[in-house]
UniProtKB/TrEMBL annotation, chain A:
Belongs to the binding-protein-dependent transport system permease family. It is a multi-pass membrane protein. The chain crosses the membrane at residues 12-31, 72-94, 106-126, 158-176, 206-227, 258-280. This is Spermidine/putrescine ABC transporter permease.
């Protein structure tokens, strides 16, 4: 194919905002972040090269290991629970016998519209010891814990937050579900397959790539999570809700250890890329689709 | 949503189907109540008095609907200043996102050039880069430029493309027929005119989606203002809310009133423009 010179010039002009933005606001910061990660940098003094010391120090830093542990906890418990809830809700909403799917869809989407700070207020208020959550639990004769000041129950309160904000994922799952050929279900019904069987053998396998996409989004989200824990618990009690990016933020803007924070950023990047690659392998993405 | 009903009419009313339907509605209603409860609680709570809010056992409805808490918001913080600051940032986010991303997306879809699709993969890859990795160097860079404590880090940067929006608009433009620009080119129209007069008017739906996303992102943002706006005079509503909360004795009724005031515009916008919200989210999922 031959290209017209004029087209190339025009194309460059059209994408020039992105080129500038990429160079100045993405590439340069990433490279300097890599450089700073090998430096001691406390803002007031110029960066001093210290080699791998930041990275080595990470492994002896109890708070860092706690933050990593808490994040892994969310990956092991929060991500699957949230994913299963979102898929289950979407399958229900996609059911052919449901006549008010539109209203329910709106209900599940609304929480994603709430500003972070407001959602956090609600969480603090609802999950305090005499809050609504415990009041409702009380109706069933359960006396709930003081969620956010309990080392055991603070993280589950955050998992509920993850579940509450599944709206985007539900919309994406619904789009995926509508692409599944209804004839498949009809054939399965004739063969005598029940609802559960149909879900496990048709819906889930064909929804694979959508599930993968949403899980990747969720995992990246967990690693980048810091506004919520910062506002709701500031990482406490103890270090129970000190998540990865919150600790990174604290190092950068509270302790002014910029180099150390950059090292944490690079470890974060490598870990999230590794997880994404593994997930792609597990879901055998692109292989034998349909 | 399309309903595929006709085929199933014969089994629509069998007892097992009805039983299943009851279970389904019960589960969905229960979860829905749990999803709406926090927001309902906020709106109702913003009319309550402090004592009322803390009352045991908990009561949903306020004793009376009075606006004391809303008045208190205006007394405790310079609400209109913070609203103005927020709107300035929102405005530039929307304008910047629309202008820059439609230009860039056009360059990635309507013009043929060598290596185009490879460069576009680079755009996609930058989408998964965590903000945390650029956050510190960006802060240091803006600090050096004297931009910390100004709106510039949150407004100026919007004019240089945002990968997710580039992706959304490109997906839309690439679906338009090639003849659209070819015949115009034969008539001697320049590329920019084709972009401005022929392509953009057709892209209105996706531009509406991007505008809404940009609005939501900047209206709801907490992290950006927290890091870059050090001057209290420049605070946004989100920062003001967080400041009000960190008072020694945060008055929850007032916080709930402020929260209601921040959620209300977004909810109204959502109900008016629902189609574009859902469309945008759906499009974001089909890149796999």
């Amino acid at each position: 194919m031959d290209y017209r010179k004029k087209d190339i010039r025009n194309a460059l002009l059209f994408i020039s905002p992105w080129i500038i933005g990429f160079l100045v606001f993405t590439l340069y910061p990433i490279l300097s972040s890599l450089y700073y990660s090998f430096c001691e940098y406390k803002v007031i003094k110029a960066p001093v090269f210290i080699g791998l010391r930041n990275y080595i120090n990470l492994f002896g830093d109890k708070s860092y290991l706690a933050a990593l542990g808490n994040t892994v906890y969310m990956l092991i418990f929060g991500v699957p629970v949230t994913t299963v809830t979102a898929v289950a809700v979407s399958i229900l909403l996609n059911n052919k016998h449901l006549h008010h799917a539109g209203i329910f869809k709106v209900v599940f989407f609304i929480p994603t519209l709430v500003p972070t700070i407001v959602a956090c207020f609600l969480w603090i208020w609802m999950f305090q010891s005499g809050g609504i959550v415990n009041t409702v639990l009380g109706y069933f004769g359960i006396s709930g814990p003081a969620w956010l000041s309990s080392i055991t129950y603070a993280k589950p309160a955050f998992i509920f937050y993850m579940i509450w904000t599944i709206g985007n994922a539900v919309i994406i799952y619904l789009a995926g579900l509508q692409d599944i050929d209804p004839n498949l279900y009809e054939a399965a019904e004739i063969d005598g397959a029940g609802f559960i069987r149909q879900t496990m053998s048709i819906t889930i396998p064909l929804l694979r790539s959508t599930i993968l996409y949403n899980m990747v989004t969720l995992i990246i989200g967990v690693f980048q999570w810091f506004a919520e824990p910062l506002i709701i618990t500031e990482g406490g009690p103890g270090n129970a809700t000190l998540f990865y990016s919150l600790y990174l933020y604290q190092n950068a803007f509270r302790f002014f250890k910029m180099g150390y924070a950059c090292a944490m950023g690079w470890v974060l990047l490598v870990i999230s890329l590794a997880i994404i690659l593994v997930l792609f392998k597990v879901f055998k993405f692109g292989e034998a689709e349909n | 949503m399309k309903k595929r009903k006709i085929k199933y009419d014969s089994i629509e009313y069998s007892p097992s189907v009805i039983a299943r339907k009851v279970v389904m509605y019960a589960i969905l209603t229960l979860i829905s109540v749990a999803f709406v409860a926090p927001i309902a609680f906020m709106f109702l709570g913003s009319f309550k008095m402090t004592k009322e809010l803390a009352r045991v056992p908990f009561k949903w409805m306020p004793d009376s609907f009075n606006f004391t808490n809303f008045k208190a918001v205006f007394e405790k913080i310079p609400f209109f200043l913070y609203l103005k600051n927020t709107l300035i940032i929102v405005f530039f986010n929307m304008i910047g996102s629309l202008v820059s991303n439609s230009l860039v997306a056009y360059g990635f879809s309507r013009i043929k050039w060598p290596g185009r699709d490879k460069v576009f993969i680079l755009v996609i890859v930058t989408m998964i880069l965590p903000f945390q990795i650029t956050m510190v160097p960006l802060y240091l860079m803006f600090n050096k430029w004297g931009w910390i404590g100004t709106f510039l880090p949150l407004t100026f940067t919007c004019f240089f493309g945002y990968p997710f929006y580039i992706f959304l608009i490109r997906q839309f433009l690439i679906g338009l027929p090639a003849e659209l620009s070819e015949s115009a080119k034969i008539d001697g129209a320049g590329e920019f005119r084709i972009f401005w007069q022929l392509t953009l008017p057709l892209a209105k739906p996706v531009l509406a989606t991007v505008a809404i996303f940009a609005f939501m992102k900047s209206w709801n943002d907490y992290i950006g203002p927290l890091i870059f706006l050090s001057d209290q005079k420049l605070y946004t509503l989100s920062l003001a809310a967080s400041m009000l909360k960190s008072n020694l004795d945060p008055q929850w009724t007032v916080l709930l009133a402020l929260g209601s005031m921040m959620v209300m515009p977004v909810l109204i916008l959502f109900f008016v423009l629902q189609k574009y919200f859902i469309q945008g989210v759906t499009m974001s999922g089909i890149k796999g």
